[in-house]
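Q: what sequence does this backbone want?
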């Protein structure tokens, strides 16, 4: 009985928090929020009861810095000096979450949001955007799937969280700009992002042009199941290969 009351209270708090988030966003991102309203009988991720059924603890929004992704010379498509979506992953406080299984991805699942996905979740390394989305769904998105939270909801949620998370601006507000060859303190990058979005998990790769120095490649932001920003837990969060000083290249 007590557990049921606690669960009901948590859901009510989530609804209140989500309403506040949407209210704030309406003032700044009216068109984006309109995009999120249920259309053509698609479920909306505003259905918090459905979201509570998803069997994990928090969301990990993985952003890729396009020049770092492409700096080894492996990209087959044009890229820009911007962050874009790399994935939306399930997070757990107690275990690693591996590959899940579920419905098969079809391009028609995302027809209503194809334009937005092409812009903010592009493929860089291979020539097909849908191939990247299919891989993301098969590897990570199926972990989210419930009767009320399906393929279209997964991609719409990733877009929504991305639109609310301008990491590049947060860094620039802190005086950190992408400059070829310039190193920054990892702690400064973390502090700038933490101030706006909670503590991130940073991932780095090596830049061949700059003598294999580590460079900022991905930023992971974490959200609880009410979509509020949280610090990314150090355990089971994706962090890889970032020393105390790292590059943030522009091209």
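A:
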């Amino acid at each position: 009985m007590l557990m049921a009351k606690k669960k009901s209270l948590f859901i009510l708090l989530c609804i209140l928090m989500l309403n506040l988030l949407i209210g704030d966003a309406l003032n700044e991102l009216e068109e984006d929020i309109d995009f999120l309203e249920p259309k053509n009988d698609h479920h909306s991720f505003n259905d918090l009861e459905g979201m509570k059924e998803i069997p994990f603890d928090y969301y990990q929004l993985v952003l890729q810095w396009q020049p770092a992704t492409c700096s080894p010379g492996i990209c087959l498509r044009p890229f820009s000096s911007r962050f874009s979506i790399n994935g939306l992953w399930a997070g757990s406080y107690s275990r690693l979450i591996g590959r899940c299984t579920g419905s098969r991805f079809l391009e028609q699942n995302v027809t209503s949001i194809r334009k937005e996905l092409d812009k903010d979740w592009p493929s860089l390394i291979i020539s097909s955007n849908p191939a990247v989305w299919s891989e993301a769904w098969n590897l990570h998105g199926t972990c989210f799937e419930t009767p009320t939270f399906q393929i279209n909801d997964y991609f719409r949620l990733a877009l929504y969280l991305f639109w609310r998370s301008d990491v590049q601006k947060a860094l620039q507000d802190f005086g950190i700009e992408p400059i070829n060859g310039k190193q920054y303190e990892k702690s400064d990058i973390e502090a700038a992002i933490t101030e706006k979005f909670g503590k991130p998990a940073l991932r780095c790769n090596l830049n061949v042009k700059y003598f294999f120095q580590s460079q900022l490649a991905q930023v992971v932001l974490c959200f609880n199941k009410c979509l509020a920003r949280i610090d990314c837990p150090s355990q089971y969060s994706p962090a890889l290969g970032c020393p105390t000083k790292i590059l943030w290249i522009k091209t």
